[in-house]
Specification:
This protein is an alpha/beta fold. It is built from seven helices and seven strands; from the N terminus they run E-H-E-H-E-H-E-H-E-H-E-H-H-E.
Length: 246
């Protein structure tokens, strides 16, 4: 673990922030990526103060140029890229008849294109070094569609399909592993992206008895997938609250 380098998108809060801290505690050097520079600076300082190694780059995952620059900055800083964690995502749930088309577009750009741009940015280097691990964060919504989640679920089903497709395209002798992480309800800022007020009532009723996970719970699952020996591939993990049934 101590010799590995990881890029983490969506690192400014939630699962990304918790994962950065978890991996840094394990000795992994982390490159933090998100749009909010103030959050990235604070996280970098927190990790360094705890004895870890961290650097950051302000990144918009919907920009292919930004993702390429992120990969290049990681190579310049640490000399290699071992792990990519495509974690950045948004969840503006909405009822389709309310036609939140701009939000649909944004979800597709962040949740699908962001993952693809991340893969495109790191895969050539991983192929060259003949080793790597690409971890894409999907969701239980990538397994089951609920009312108001049609587009969001569509993006998360896509993440799973893309990751599984990549796994099948890679040759065993390339030593590049892929992992899908599908969290259930997590206490993050995702819910703050919802603007459809009709949805909020549905969510509060559906999840009223669910105690959400913390970001650290998902971070622990990600660390588990990474720390397996090279001969072991954790293809997919669903991590949800014990109280969640949907």
């Amino acid at each position: 673990m101590e010799n590995k380098v990881a890029i983490i998108t969506g690192a400014s809060s939630g699962i990304g922030e918790a994962t950065a801290k978890e991996l840094a505690r394990s000795g992994i050097k982390v490159m933090l990526a998100a749009r909010r520079e103030d959050r990235l600076v604070q996280l970098k300082n927190d990790i360094i103060a705890s004895g870890g190694l961290a650097e950051y780059r302000v990144t918009d995952v919907t920009s292919q140029d930004d993702m390429h620059s992120l990969a290049q900055a990681t190579l310049e800083t640490y000399g290699k890229i071992d792990i990519l964690i495509n974690n950045a995502g948004i969840m503006p749930l909405s009822i389709l008849r309310n036609r939140k088309v701009d939000e649909w577009d944004r979800m597709i750009d962040v949740n699908i294109k962001g993952v693809l741009y991340g893969i495109a940015a790191v895969l050539p280097h991983m192929e060259e070094q003949n080793e790597g691990h690409i971890i894409n964060v999907s969701s239980v919504a990538g397994h089951e569609v609920l009312p108001s989640g049609a587009v969001y679920s569509g993006t998360k089903f896509a993440v799973r399909a893309i990751t599984e497709g990549l796994r099948k395209e890679l040759r065993p002798d390339q030593n590049i592993r892929t992992t899908i992480i599908s969290p259930g309800a997590v206490a993050t800022e995702l819910i703050h992206t919802i603007t459809d007020q009709e949805v909020m009532g549905v969510l509060s009723q559906s999840f009223k008895d669910v105690a959400p996970l913390g970001g650290v719970d998902v971070a622990s699952a990600i660390r588990y997938a990474i720390e397996q020996p090279a001969s072991v591939s954790v293809n997919e993990m669903i991590v949800s609250p014990a109280s969640q049934r949907i």
